[in-house]
Amino acid sequence: MRFASLATGELLASGEYHYFENGEQRNIVEPWSLYSGGDADDMLAVSQRRVEEAGIVIDVAVEMTQGLCRRAHFSWSQAGSRGGAATEAVYTFDGGALSALTIDGRETGAAQGFDYFFPLMRVFTGPLLAHLARRSSASVLVPWIKDPSNLELLFTADLSERSVEDVGRLRAEGGNVQMLEYNGGQYEQAASCVLREGNWLQAYSWRKNPTSSWEVRLVSPVPRMACPDFTVV
After folding, report:
1. Rounded to an integer, what is the distance from CA 40 to the centroid of its chain?
2. In angstroms, what CA-CA distances link 151 with 20, 34, 96, 118?
3. Single pTM value for the model
4. CA-CA distance, 133 to 218, in Å (whole number)?
5. Cα–Cα distance between 68 and 72 in angstroms, integer?
6. Do residues 227 and 63 touch, judged by C-beta distance below 8 A?
7. Cα dihedral 147, 153, 157, 161 sign
8. Tally: H helices and E strands in the chain
9. What is the pLDDT of residues 100-158, one digit of tens each?
10. Cβ atoms of 13 and 34 closer than 8 Å
């Protein structure tokens, strides 16, 4: 993973999400790792999404300091695009706001007035869903990746209103399972989510179009530790 060199502490947990379309596994994988930081409330999360058929690689690293998300690093590259050069962005947070955003070395407009930050990858989804389940809706800041060919907008700060509906709970081996419907963002229909104890995202499914249904599954064991919350700045 591109940002693995940022890790200086102990490996705390790791895993992998796989993607399925209409029940068939696609060649898209999303490994992640969590590392301890210098102090008890410091942590680093590193993840990578590889879309093999399209030659796309997205890398993310998020730094937590004193229990709050302070900095997030993003990289997007695609074989044959821009000579294979990556687009990179760094989000810096201070005082509950996005204090600085740099994309390919250029400073762009910051953002205020949001409730949570979502750093794109599935490992960050569970804590966000848990926050949204406790309120009617919230404004969520997400780096923009809807059309990566639009380099003027790639990784810019995008705000959207999102909400969650609790649709049931089940008792399963290893702990309780919470079933949620996730609304907002780029999907017209709600996404169905399965949340395990400790706020780990077990599965996430959505309909891309009338003939294409997608699901993301955590294929590695659910860690015993709670999922760290990188969504609060």
Report:
1. 23
2. 28, 30, 27, 20
3. 0.94
4. 21
5. 12
6. no
7. negative
8. 1, 15
9. 999 999 998 777 789 999 999 999 999 999 999 999 999 999 999 998 888 889 999 99
10. yes
